[in-house]
Amino acid sequence: MSGGVDSAVAAARAVEAGHDVTGVHLALSANPQSYRTGARGCCTVEDSRDARRAADVIGIPFYVWDMAEEFDRDVVQDFVAEYAAGRTPNPCLRCNEKIKFQAVLERALALGFDAVCTGHHVRLDNGRLRRSVDRAKDQSYVLAVLTREQIAHAMFPLGDCTKAEVRAEAARRGLAVADKPDSHDICFIADGDTSGFLGRRLGTAPGPIVDETGAVVGQHNGAHTFTVGQRRGLNLSGAPNRRYVLSIEPVSNTVTVGPREALAVDRIVGERPVWSGCEPPQEWTPFTVQLRAHGEVYPCRARQHEGRLEILLDEPATGVARGQAAVLYDGDVVMGSATIDATSRAQRTVASQNTQ
Question: What is the value of pTM for the model shown?
Answer without folding.
Answer: 0.90
